[in-house]
């Protein structure tokens, strides 16, 4: 009887001991590897979040930086759509990057959440396009090193319209003579698209917010609801009645209609150019003619490198951004990979030797930076909804526009 | 006789005990034991490894939890008793890790002001405020600097654009120093100090960022600071933090900002500094849901539509699925197998893909439905608030009926033929057989599935987000919601869309959703149980 128990007991003891041994051997080896990593003299690592295209382009310059300074660069590939949210949640948790690529309209939210810090560009500031600097200016501080500029312009099918239009009427007349279904293609979609519509709107006058002297936006000055805004709303409703503007015209449909030759003109950005060229259409790009008498000013979105507020590598990161990313070579490489104009003036000048890029550049000359203030998000919501209502003929244009203005005012007061 | 009777049980007991011992020995087989040792060893290795990491990072709560769970698991698997615990433990651990912890975390978030502007801890908010309050003096010269280590202090050796070299540290304002030697026209070292190489600079980045060299003895002139270790500019900070009184002071206006207790520094005039930080706000998120002018109305409207959407979806898919199952269950129907396979197709596509395709089909001017089926009519399927709701229900019917068809088919086939045959002999009509025999039996097995379908549709985010994105937008409310938004898509918009993200409020809504679904399921399951008892 006791023999049984003992035998079982021995087996059990052996079992427990071997479990402990396996466990200890496991942690023993891991401890060893940690120690060797600590004793080996490695400088810090710079972690950068970027999307697939940018990661591929930045590899060379990252290697150069490592060779020169000994600082390793860890390029983490991220989906562009998730970078903003991940910064907001992961930087406070201490899991964020040192540097992240992003869009200038994120600046307000990221700064309000305290996850990015101002970047001191010093004398290098003057080397960049002014609009790129304005775009990242939030409360008087520059928050990113810009690398790309993008905006909508008038994309023209050169077979249907060989010459650039001299005016809006000239554009419509050319299309009529060409016998196409639409005079021009402008996407709206079910949710509205006041971003793409903006150059047409500004040709009537109204901005959304006033701008301070340093280029940043003043959320206290709402300018959207003035008389010119009403004129624009009425114009939009008339165009919808004529069948040109429609909420059915989504971005995809506008692009495919243009590729089918349904109109000589498409108001769109550089992101569609490669698809259009692939469809075998020769295009030229011009500034957008004025529909309302004043210059058409598109929104200019700027891409840049943000600096995390919790980075332990600020000096290395600042050096990497100003002295490595802020060079012609890297800015041109990023331009070649993404098709967006560089933000560094010297690289920009070289890039606009290409006629298509020159067209987008010309259109951006009148442009205003994409607003980066947090107040903008409630504006987009009402603005898009109002344009959808006006285009769907759900009421009088002036009434709907006035209603939108008061809704925006109410939302801003909160 | 007597003794033998008394001995019998004792003998039996001895025999039984011996048999148990033999059985116990037989249980301790070598291979299973080795596998057990190996697996538990791996688990313990992982556990001890994470204990080391947790201890090093001072996460004591997690340390204690991992320790207790680890000891408990070892005790359970080395104990001869408690067979049930051996089966239950892995499942319970996964339940806690993946379900309960998530529920508790969102429960906790619902009582905080976590959201835009209240994103991290107070320390992080103070750091961010100090970072952003640092302003470069507009006419600041560009100073080329080298970082020196003099005694125990970090100093800046500075060459201004006028070519004059000076030295200073955080306590000593800039002054002309002795023994400055220059290289290529730039000062590089001072006797008694050691010049840091760029690598040294990188290794001590955070120390160097803290160095603030006063430009002169007058603090109004600002301090020299560097952010790249090579150039410095004159900065002034517009905010000062006093840790003792826990206040921020604007250095220009003298305005004092105090911790308001609501997660931010607020001045006497009500001006708030951003960023703030995350604090517990008690029930205020729930109060906003149930007792605020701008939220209660929209919430109730969305709730009503969510319930309508789920109930109608379950009812419509069940009716269509059941009808088809009955039709295709009839042996007189030819080529049933082919039809069945075709009918299951909508179920085989990922629902978000189908929803996107449907959005294209329903396009007002260019969609297949208006252009071809309705001969060019401009029906605003996704633009009109009422039609958009109908469109969502139709698409969900299309997506959902194959599942109901499948389960009804299975349930019908499991009902014994004899029942309907004997009913037929008793003179029951086909309708009566269905109404009084097949349908009640069917409900017994289908009812739980109807409840789970209801719960699934209650949170059917894919369909709403991909088909209408909640639209058409309804601007009459102060919230960013549309006519077809259900609760879960509204929660998504509150938490992740726009610049005003409010995770606290979104979590409060998520908890409400959980409660509603749990209540409906509990009632539903109880009813279906009573169905089982009836038949």
Give me the secondary-structure topology.
The complex is a heterodimer of chains A (414) and B (535).
Chain A: H1 2-39, E1 45-50, H2 52-69, E2 72-77, H3 80-90, E3 99-103, H4 107-112, H5 130-135, E4 137-138, E5 141-142, E6 144-150, E7 153-157, H6 168-178, H7 194-202, E8 209-211, E9 217-222, H8 227-241, H9 251-259, E10 265-268, H10 273-278, E11 283-286, E12 299-307, H11 314-325, H12 328-338, E13 341-342, H13 345-351, H14 355-365, E14 368-369, H15 376-391, H16 397-413
Parallel strand pairs in A: 1-2, 1-3, 12-14
Antiparallel strand pairs in A: 3-12, 4-5, 6-12, 6-13, 7-10, 7-11, 8-9
Chain B: H1 2-27, H2 30-56, H3 60-78, H4 83-109, H5 122-133, E1 134-136, E2 143-150, E3 153-159, E4 165-169, E5 180-183, E6 186-190, E7 193-195, H6 198-203, H7 205-210, E8 213-214, E9 223-226, E10 231-237, E11 239-242, E12 247-250, E13 256-259, E14 265-267, H8 284-290, H9 296-329, H10 336-348, H11 351-361, H12 368-373, H13 385-414, H14 417-425, H15 430-458, H16 461-467, E15 473-474, E16 481-482, H17 487-496, H18 503-534
Helix pairs in contact in B: 2-3, 4-18, 8-18, 9-13, 9-15, 10-13, 11-16, 13-15, 14-15, 15-18, 17-18
